[in-house]
Amino acid sequence: MGLFKLGPSPLTGLLSGVMHPLLGPDHLLFLLALGLVGLQQSSRWLLGLLLTGLAAAGLGIWLPGFPAAEPLVALSLAAVGLVLLDRLPRWVLFPAIALHGYVLSASVIGWEPTPLLFYFIGLALGQGLLLLCAVRLVRPWAQTCSPAKLRLLAGILMGVGASFAWTSLVP
Hints:
By secondary structure, the protein is mainly α. The chain has one domain (10-169). Helices cover 77% and strands 0% of the residues. It contains 7 helices and no strands. It has helices at residues 10-23, 25-38, 43-62, 69-84, 93-104, 113-144, 147-169. Helix 1 (10-23) runs parallel beside helix 6, helix 3 packs across helix 5 and helix 4 runs antiparallel to helix 7 (147-169). The longest helix has 32 residues, at 113-144. The radius of gyration is 16 Å and the shape is globular.
């Protein structure tokens, strides 16, 4: 919104919410990686993740300033990799997506209630559609994926997450 010099309104709130998960590479990779984990879970599990992220975004509006949130968000990619390798339990992804939601709220702190409501609607739509697309897109690939390829993908996710965390800690 800053790039186009748009002020908060219902339309810009909705557009910002829909686009926000797509604009951060760590957020986008995290949601896409959840598609791999989501193949092994029920739709209710993915809905629970989505609701957790949205609730944490609401929390971020009222209690901003959680220290080290950005590096922890980056490390959530490593957490997904470890879950894919069965080195961490799947419940770890609930606090991980909560961190993502929390960080996504930082850009709209101080907005009026109406644009803020539309931001959350857009965020729910954007993240929900992205999770559904991720599951649909990776399903054909995952059915033919060998364990070695899955380990390689998990390693790539962990490396990308560690590098994002490093760049957010070291200027």
